[in-house]
Amino acid sequence: MSDRYAFQFFRTELRPPGVLWVTFDRPERRNAITPEMHDEIAPLFARIAADREVRVVVLTGAGDKAFCVGADFSGMQANLDGAGYADGHPELLHGSAAVVRGQLGVPQPMIAVVNGDALGLGATMALFCDITLMADGARIGDPHVKAGLVAGDGGTVLWPLLLGLNRGKEYLFTGDLLSSEEALTFGLVNHVYPAPELTAEATKLAERIAAGPAVAIQFNKRLANAELVDRVNRVLDASLAMEALTFATADHREAVRAFLDKRPPSFGA
Fold it and tell me: What confidence tens digit (pLDDT) does each residue in 34-50 have?
């Protein structure tokens, strides 16, 4: 079937009965997000929200290794050298905020199909979906802190809300990844399936929801998300501003140097 919206970095396929499959499409880089790819996300959500033929959205990743591993680190050194970061990194308060609010503005129910690792912004986008399914060998986590950064693009909103305050803070402080079994045990995801069965199970669930009463389902989503939207409105802008500050810290510079040197970082040294 033809691509519905013709974005460069996302494949979009509308399947009967109104299920839109959206696929992160950089499998050679584990679906890591470049600035150019990031620029497509908010417009993608706007297209979906306005598409009356879409009853359910399924979000997944190309390939069998990753759902999305967050930001692509390949340009980090150039950014530190002054080629990429604008003064104060204001794009975080525009583009990154638009991604979160754009996803929450999609009225149709969204199902994340986490077919491989979901890290950083990848984890955030999976967890901002309404239902999250996960392959049994996949991992999920927000390792911003390992790069010396605040988890500003949604992590500080989601992890304490979904895991409970203290457990959520533990994972934000350590950047540790959860296995699919841990994510299921803690209630972070809805279901875990063997990888070969994941797509079929997601298809069954999506088609079941798509066959339901669309208006009632969308209104249920709006009401259930009221607390989440309120938390985003209270926390997101401040968290992005604090993330922007951490881009200028010595710890972030050390994290980038360590990543490029393939060694553990030494923070505060």
Answer: 999 999 999 999 999 99
